[in-house]
Design goal:
alpha/beta, 3-stranded parallel beta sheet, elongated, 130 residues, 6 helices
């Protein structure tokens, strides 16, 4: 290799880290987030979820849409989140009944403890009450 070619390659190699990046990831969140609640609107779990969604929306700078899927003691909402795409834009506001229902309903199409973790963890109350 000629000396001039080597110097050109060395100069390009040192300048490469300062070049602008063409492939950048989108900032999260790029579109509204869904927060699924397995209980009807107006109840205790729904009100708490809406307060958490408001706080989360303010913290992330993005709209958080609360979507109620009532029925079967929260099982319909849990099934909706387990069947949702694991893209990080669908969250679930779990209640204690979701873990209890695993023992009460032997024929659930999912195992809440095994399947729910792949979507997103539930919202902790300490985030909301600062």
């Amino acid at each position: 290799m000629k000396r001039r070619s080597f110097l050109h390659l060395a100069a390009a190699d040192t300048a490469l880290p300062f070049a602008p990046r063409f492939a950048r990831a989108q900032a999260y969140p790029a579109h509204p987030i869904r927060l699924i609640v397995g209980f009807p609107a107006g109840g205790q779990v729904d009100i708490t979820a809406r307060l958490a969604a408001q706080w989360l929306g303010n913290a992330l700078g993005q709209t958080v849409v609360v979507e109620n899927k009532p029925g079967a003691g929260g099982n319909l909402g849990a099934e909706a989140i387990i069947n949702a795409a694991p893209d990080g834009y669908t969250l679930f506001f779990a209640a204690a009944s979701n873990t209890v229902n695993t023992t009460l309903f032997p024929n659930l199409p999912y195992d809440f403890a095994r399947d729910a973790h792949r979507s997103a963890p539930s919202i902790a109350f300490r985030w909301c009450w600062k």
